[in-house]
Amino acid sequence: MKKNFFIAFEGIDGSGKSTQVKLLTEKLEKAGLMVYTTFEPTDSPMGKIIRDMFNHRMEADHRTIAALFVADRLDHLLNKTNGILKKLDEGYTVITDRYYLSSFAYQSQFVDLNWVIQANSLSADLRKPDLNIYIDILPELSMDRLNKGRSSIELYETLENLQNVRNRYFEVIDLLKEEQVFIIDGNRSSEIIANEIWNKIRHEFVETPAM
What we know:
By secondary structure, the protein is an alpha/beta fold.
């Protein structure tokens, strides 16, 4: 049994990542683990700038956004107060809503993929996830959820873009064989998805009876 581990949830917008982070956290805590949940972009000053760009409060070139993600991710890892590496060292299992696979899928539409991978290589060298969980949903379902749940649509949230990002995710997953990726069908109920994720985590990391 691993003492603690690092999980990254991935998927296009509206895929249900935040719901599954919450449900997995509850199961892990019930199994006796300390869990720290986090997200990208972060709530650091750099992350807030990115969110302002996404919400159309600021404008920037896509190359600038890609570079900001690199900086935000490094601070996410290395921050001495609540960084991922610090939390792992303290014995927490860390679950993040998005990590560098998101940059590969989203930013590579506008910036060369090799540059994005290389720019994020320091983050990958510092800490790869023990498991990336990619929740795959149809872009049409994504747009339906976003339109129902949001008062405004963010920068990348168009049907065409979400289709492109979904395709990019699969290209990246196929390209990066060294990444541990669990692909799950997100077009079903959150309970079914949560149970499948828990079975995967339980068998590989926790070794505890099913819940």
